[in-house]
Amino acid sequence: MVVGDHGTMVVHNHLTPQTPLDVMAETLAAAVEEEWNKEAGLRRLKARVVDETPLPVRWEVSGRRVADRVAGATAEGVRDSFGPLPGLRVVTREQLLEGGGLNELYEVYGGLASGRILLVGREAAGKTAALVLLLLKAIEYRREAKPENQRRIPVPVLLPLEGWDPRKESALDWAATQIARRYRVRGPEEARQLLKERRVALFLDGLDEVVGKLRGAMVRALGSERVRMVVASRVDEAERTAQKMRLRGAVGLEIQPVKPEVAADYLLNQLPDPPPPAWHRLTSRLLHESDSAVAEALSSPLAIGLVRDVYREDDPVDELLDTARFPDSRTIEDHLLDHAVAAAYTPAYWDPRPRYSPETAERTLRFIAARLAQEGGGDLSWWHIPGWANPRPRAVVVGVVVGMVYGVVSALGLWRASGPLSACVAGPLLAVAAGGLAGRQVSLLAAPQPLPSAGWRDIFSPATLKIGVMCWLSVGLMNWFGPQFMDPPMPVWLDWLTALPFGFAATMASGPGYQLMVGGFLFGLGSGPWFNGMRQRLTRRTVTESRSIGPRDVWRHHGGLRLVLALVSGLAVALVFGCYMGWSHGLRNGVASALVAGLWATLFAGPVGNLTVATALTAVQLAFRERTPVRLMAFLDDAHHRNLLRVTGPVYQFRHARLQERLTQQE
Fold this sequence. Notes:
By secondary structure, the protein is mostly helical. Among the domains are: 20-255, Rossmann fold (3-Layer(aba) Sandwich), CATH 3.40.50; 260-338. Helices cover 56% and strands 6% of the residues. The chain contains 29 helices and eight strands. Helix 4 (102-111) crosses helix 5 and helix 18 runs antiparallel to helix 19 (420-444). It is globular, with a radius of gyration of 30 Å.
């Protein structure tokens, strides 16, 4: 405080520069917030209009044996303890036993000494919804904190546990790989550093979906990591797992059923006052007969949301009160699930007409649910779609088209260069070879495989560009100083021009671009364990901005990137063959050689080995066989926007496991 006239206050501003880890954490936080804000809107977890109020989250300490004692989670001074986040207090036993809502859940998350929460609930209780809302709360709290405190507040990242094998990969390594792949963080090593320094908190969903002994192995592996985490699971599976292995230091919090008065208010919120008689009878039963079948069914967020989706304002919603048709809560839930797809594709009079009919949508989703049940998982990975239909018809079609195109183009080039005899002999042979290899490559794409993907700045990173320039200089110098085996010798400018494709090949082979180009690349570079290790060392620091993109965006990105790279690769091959052959044997031979070699490289590096193209062709094949939409990826994106599917990174999942189960049974 400065008192009196002519007082002077000297203020010093000290700015601490951000470290690369700070920048990466900020970029990751922005990507996570963008992804889950959008997804929360589609899942109706956030208010979309002014007068809409989402269902609240209520929790209590679980009374079942799913975790250790509460005292173990709140103890201070233990080796794995976490200090409270800036602005929060240490959570006490009394505070936990009081329970609460979302704000109290965040206080537990940020102030629990053990830093571990096991969030459990019965089926369709809203565990994933609570996890998403807690994540958004954590992101918001971090964004509004002072800059000096943001470094001490971890970035929450939600990951599904499906696909992780703790017997082969540690929890930290697996999480780092998932974060780097999903959010395009610079690399697994940088993501691992964020985790080791507690700059990232793990929100892990789907522990109950893991089968067998793998679940216990996951719990053991997670308990040994010093990372703040929240793990969600159904309560029955969590209790069975805890009999053999508990998540060390975790407190078990159970999501509570929705209260009847909250459910009634939510259902009546979008209706006129007074409500229609059918809705009034339904909500009256909810409020006055809490032990009825409809009250038990509408204690879960899933069933409440389905009632709002299936029944319009003037529909006979009171039919759910018929105890002869619906004797228990399970039959009510099955009835709502059976009508969920048709309701999503039946527009109100003010809505635009959907692109797909209810019958088409239901038939397609039944087929997809049955396929996922066959594969034994809940993730719909679009790059596995080529395995849903016999690849032979696609292989034949692609082989014939590629063979005809390549045979005609190469025959014309050879005719102009060497005459009709060589064109008639070599043209058919090249056509058969190209068609056979193209068909074989299409067939190979039907087998399940990981999705190779990268961005432009990942492929052409500073490290790979340096290798490309060094290779270009080396080949150019060899052409310049080497023996002049060509008669007449090529000029200097042509020596350096023909070296450019070798530099491009080295750039692609030394980075993630190698994964996008099939067959050991074009010039034989990038094969063997030495090159694989070199690529891993060079791609540790990529520079692509962090962002998470959905399945359809990944599909488009993968296809467009592959096709452009294939065209550039074809031009590179054409440049090498065309220059050498053209200078030695004339312009016609050079053009013919460039055409034959460049087209081969373009076809096989691009559309033939492209998973995007294979997925699109499979969708056409399924449209004839199963009467599904020809543009299957567009349909999946539309179903996501209608809240029938949800997005987790680059894969789709059904809105709820029960919906997938009902559709599978119908199929």
